[in-house]
Design brief:
Layout (H helix, E strand, L loop, with lengths): L23 H23 L2 H8 L3 H7 L3 H25 L4 H16 L6 H5 L7 H26 L3 H25 L5 H16 L9
Helix pairs in contact: 1-2, 1-4, 4-5, 4-7, 5-8, 5-9, 7-8, 8-9
Length: 216
């Protein structure tokens, strides 16, 4: 399930030529796409608004018309990235009523997101600005909202109380995102399908052992 972050096909070294006026929505999308490249490559602290404006092929005043400061731009981009992984998780859970397949689809959603060429996952899972409360809030929202959706399924099928269901759900989210990042950085000998199959089997071997309250 591909993430919904912007498609960034241009080489990082190629500066987009300055062009005519774009509709506001298109210009904003262009600026966010350029900012994503710079933030992923340099991190928040080393990224400069000058670099982002140059990458987008606009003047700094145009950039500031859309985003008053670097933090505003970063938060807008982070919010979009968080929405993408949450929506991918929602779609994975809704894709089937078979719980084993649900586990596999949800694990796969995280692997697809982390494996995306955009590198947007680094803003969500490897941000160098997590001491900023607004950033921490958005990053925590990914775990919180994904876990809430998974916990609903666990509680419905097992009859576990909400606290137990949420603990199991947070554990599954943690397994998915941490293993996906490890796979990308250090387990390159495994392709994505192999990696997701292994982790899905591990997750299902645990969660699948809890009894269903209703036979499906």
């Amino acid at each position: 399930m591909p993430p919904t972050t912007p498609d960034l096909d241009a080489d990082l070294g190629e500066i987009r030529p300055r062009g005519g006026r774009l509709p506001r929505r298109e210009r904003r999308a262009q600026l966010l796409s350029s900012a994503l490249e710079i933030f992923v490559r340099n991190g928040y602290h080393a990224a400069a608004m000058d670099d982002i404006a140059d990458r987008a092929g606009v003047s700094k005043p145009v950039l500031y018309q859309h985003f008053p400061g670097k933090l505003d731009l970063y938060l807008a981009l982070l919010d979009t990235s968080c929405d993408a992984i949450i929506e991918n998780c929602r779609q994975a859970l809704a894709s089937t009523h078979d719980n084993e397949q649900r586990v596999a689809a949800t694990i796969s959603a995280f692997y697809d997101y982390v494996g995306s060429e955009t590198g947007a996952f680094r803003l969500v899972f490897e941000s160098d600005l997590t001491n900023e409360p607004a950033v921490r809030h958005l990053v925590d929202r990914v775990t919180s909202e994904c876990a809430s959706m998974i916990a609903e399924v666990i509680a419905e099928d097992t009859g576990f109380p909400s606290e137990a269901s949420r603990l199991l759900a947070v554990s599954l989210v943690g397994m998915a995102q941490v293993s996906a990042r490890f796979w990308l950085e250090e387990a390159g000998g495994l392709d994505r399908d192999q990696a997701t199959a292994l982790v899905s089997a591990l997750a299902w071997g645990g969660i699948g052992g809890y009894p269903l309250t209703v036979e499906h």
